[in-house]
Amino acid sequence: MAHRPCPFFDPGTQSSNNTLGILQLKRDLLIPTILSSEPSTDYAEGKVETTRFGTFPHSTLINQPWGTQVLASVVDTGSRGAKGKKRKRGKEEAGKEEEEDEGRPSDSQLVKAATASSGFVHLIPPTPETWTLCLPHRTQVVYTPDYSYILQRLRARPGDHIIEAGAGSGSFTHAAARAVFNGYLGQDVTRYGTEDSRRKRKTKRYGRVYSFEYHEQRAKQLVAEVESHGLRDVVTITNRDVYGDGFCLPSSNGPAAHSSDAEPDADIIFLDLPAPWLALKHLTRSPLPSPTATPAEGTTPTPFRSPLNPKSATRICTFSPCIEQVQKTITALREYGWLEISMVEIQAKRLDVRRERVGLSEEGVRGANSSAATVKEAVQRLRDVEGRAKLFHGMQIEKQKEVMRKVEKVKKGEQEKKGSSSGRDTDIATEKRDAQHKINAESKDTLMSTLPPSKHDRLQQAKANAALRPAYKEGRLIHRTEQEIKTHTSYLTFAVLPREWTKEDEEQAREKWGR
Amino acid sequence: MHSYIRPYTHIALRLPSGIVKVLEIIPNTNINIGKFGTFPANLLLGRPYYLTFELLDKEEGKSQTELRVVPASELHAETLASDDAATPVESKEEPTADGGVQFDIVGENGEVIMRNNRLTVDDPSRQTLSMEEIEELKKAGTGSGKEIIAKIMASHMALEEKTKFSLAKYSLRKAKKYLRRFTVLPLDVGTLAEYVLEKEPFKVMELREESLGLIGAWANIHCGDSSRVLTAHDGISQIGGGRWLVVDDTAGLVVASLAEKMGILYSPEEESEGEEEEEEEVLNLEKPQNGEPTETGSENPQQDTEMPDIPTDASSAPQTASNPNSTTKPTPSLSSSLKPFPRKPHRNHIPAMSSPTNTLTILHPNAQPNLALLKYFNFDACDPSPTHPLYHHLKSLSWLQLLSPTSSDDYREPPLLSDSVLAEMKSSKRSTYYKKRRRWERTKRVVDETRRGGFDGVVVAGVMSPESVLRWCVPLVKGGGRVVVYSNTVEPLVELCDLYSKDRRAAFVQREVERQEAMAGVKKEGEENGTVALPELDEEEDLDFPVNPTLLLAPTLQTSRARDWQVLPGRTHPLMTSKGGAEGYLFTATRVLPLEGKVEARGNFRGKKRKTGEKTAVPT
């Protein structure tokens, strides 16, 4: 049975046709896409991914090693709307591009696009985490901090069977599939180590996720997703109302022959339902006695079948946003004999790390605080300002004096006109004064140069420096909680249902192990 | 998995006080749980986990304590009863009924439904039983503590004055003190983490379950049994195969957690779950070969010479998989005649650390890795049992062996002796010779394989500075692989984030471009010797760029904490106290393959025109 490895578990060395790849643009901006080399009706380049950071024809994404930084291409996106013309134009342009592009002819009918001058993305293989960040939202998503803790607490291990009810957007489905995955059906490569005689005689138990979704549309979408993500062997989607119909699957429902027919044979249960307590009556090991607390619905005619694995302790987690749901769930859990009941909520946050630059030297620099960094700096600045003020004040006075002198001079001149006897004297006086002025001005200049530059000069200087400064290592390293945090996702209720233990079992154990 | 309690496994007993006791269950011995008494271990063997047992009193004529399984209905009886009582009150939805009880709530027929605490008297004299009397009762030790509690409650003068809540608290307190019950929990990674965190948090870097979950998720840990080890584009280095690199200063807790998620932590007999195996289990009643020396070449030199130098590629490795019938179950006659313990025949022995896929490679700063906690999973790193999956799937090498293999003694090939020389040797010398050869083969295999890189991810939970670890580990991770660093405190990771910051990356690219232009044409790649180009060990540390910031995408720093709640009818609230200590932080990123040279980013930068900002403003 030639199996195509699931890109989530074993993506291989490079991206390939018809597999899921993720384009990472920013930390939280990821675009999932099924890579395809098929020609498309929209673009001459085939399937194209248009993003904020440029356009990426799939031909540039396929057969690239995972993790590669891919440059954007020049693709004519403008003419897409205009049908009819579009293809021709695309071809023409593409022809040009081909010439530009070293004239290399493409081996398929797809047009090879020219590399754009800017823009890039990283092509990364899908993981449940990246998928959670970019999946098409259908319902509330179970995010990584929650599902990782849930799977940890539920002790999900390779080979386990998980029931998931309320598949929703499928984020938990993918994470659960990864947790229990231990090989593809019918492809039991013998490896040493875990393989020993006993296990070989026994058929290996493959990890499986049995996912139930009430909403038909969502269930259909999920089925398609599971198929395209290569998870068919691990995940079974069933469209069903689990409140009424329970969790047992007809034994023929399995996609392939399964060792234990009694599906789902679950070890782990995850309920993301509005009323988990209504589903609990179907998760028992033995038939409920008829006068149960749950509303009677008429006993089913079929013989009782438990959806639980009789040989392991069943672990359950319910995921409910409201405390009232939790209370009802826990009461029901107690009634049905679940143990180790506990409830927690997860408080997760991400931290932003950056450098905070403070100081007078940051004046006019973006993203920095230009207040004084220290008291000393502040005092120095105050001194400077004061010194400048004094100087300017002095200059102001000097200027005023000058004006006065000029006025005087004019007056004197008038007087001279009246009686032009003492003209020579005044000339000499003016000369003397001018000389005095010059000296004054010179000293002023030297004074100015010793003073710190003006604000204008400072800004100019800072701007010039900004490009040269190693800003990446300046300032103080700080961290703070991210702008938006999820203060409440849901309450997680955990419980365990031990194996059934009867008097006969106890007798047998006593006989076997002695006392 | 953990289907029932097997002999020679570690189990955890939780006492009513919440104290967890971890012990190895050995048949035909007694288990002592402190003041509550002692009982035979055999009474637990074969029973399922998660059951609560009660110690019964010794009956006349019987030599030992009996255990009784306490059914769930009994465990929940009190809460369920009070729940029923609480429901009518809640359903009325009177404002006074929720929570703060201001006054007694009296039903229509005059019956008091809810009392308030007006009558509460804080006086120990209200308990009429004296301490001596209680001690007497304890000595008499009847009814597994229930009777004592009943007597104490009965002797309380004003029990009926207590509110329902304070009564519940009172009886819970007494139950914790006197009930002779315990619950048997499987000692899996979750239980172990809780246990160690309570006892010696510093030993495991205060690693909580939340962090364990996150580490596993972000490192994309999964069972890689069926993954392929492929050759990379350069034709030399390998890619994938479900192999992860680990740096672990948590005494093996991280390794255990990862191994559990990869399905290589529990020995196969533990993983099997049915009764079908029980016949064989009986044989295992005798102490299993765990603890036996594994490298026992002396009696069987034949087997040693047969042992091939396992090539590391995937295709040929499985062929050496053992003859299935010889591996686990020794024939009883053989074992009884040779040794007191059954011994695994070593024919077709597969060397340690030789699995090509689904492996953990641990890098350790000392000569030996510290994996002390793995003893709870019956694995001793210094003396591993060949039946344990970690024997093949856990590889270890020291930093010296990774970075400077030629200076490590174990990497140098010991001289190969001819058969005739060997035949003349004393058997002890011969076994030393084989031991040396085997150690060399193992070391060489692991070192060479590790240096060929292509790991699916690296998980670091260590006390060494993370940048110095990542400097050498990141190049060994495949493109698209995950890098996860745990630290109990935030500071080292903040610094690490800064070393991968956008601005620093831009500056680094700028510098590299300038360098490249300066020395155009001269290019050195360490790939010709079949290994990934690692930074030279003695290369002067670049203070501004201790790590290559272009190799990681989307570095993220996060933390997570679970807050426990009490959910009881009418008394639901978060727990009043819980453990403080280190928060535990996680740095995660994706390894990428940057393009060489300058790459212009695109996008709107709000008119920002800084030169440095443009190149790498895209991913943060």
TrEMBL record, chain A:
Pfam families: GCD14. Keywords: Methyltransferase, Nucleus, S-adenosyl-L-methionine, Transferase, tRNA processing. Residues 291-303 have a biased composition (Low complexity). Transmembrane segments: none annotated. It is found in: Nucleus. Residues 119-180, 201-284, 311-388 form the tRNA (adenine(58)-N(1))-methyltransferase catalytic subunit TRM61 C-terminal domain. It comes from the Eukaryota. The keyword S-adenosyl-L-methionine applies. Residues 77-110, 288-309, 403-438 are annotated as: Disordered. GO terms for molecular function: tRNA (adenine(58)-N1)-methyltransferase activity. InterPro entries: SAM-dependent_MTases_sf, TRM61_C, tRNA_MeTrfase_Gcd14. GO terms for biological process: tRNA methylation. Its EC number is 2.1.1.220. GO terms for cellular component: nucleus; tRNA (m1A) methyltransferase complex. Its main location: nucleus. Gene3D superfamilies: 3.10.330.20, Vaccinia Virus protein VP39 (3.40.50.150). This is tRNA (adenine(58)-N(1))-methyltransferase catalytic subunit TRM61. It comes from Delitschia confertaspora ATCC 74209. The lineage of its organism: Eukaryota, Fungi, Dikarya, Ascomycota, Pezizomycotina.
From TrEMBL, chain B:
Keywords: Initiation factor, Nucleus, Protein biosynthesis, tRNA processing. The keyword Glycosyltransferase does not apply. InterPro entries: SAM-dependent_MTases_sf, TRM6. One of its GO terms (biological process) is tRNA methylation. Its main location: nucleus. GO terms for molecular function: translation initiation factor activity. SUPFAM superfamilies: S-adenosyl-L-methionine-dependent methyltransferases. The keyword tRNA processing applies. Residues 291-305 have a biased composition (Polar residues). One of its GO terms (cellular component) is nucleus. It is found in: Nucleus. Residues 322-340 have a biased composition (Low complexity). Residues 268-283 have a biased composition (Acidic residues). Residues 80-101, 266-349 are annotated as: Disordered. It holds the Pfam family Gcd10p. Belongs to the TRM6/GCD10 family. This is tRNA (adenine(58)-N(1))-methyltransferase non-catalytic subunit TRM6. It comes from Delitschia confertaspora ATCC 74209.
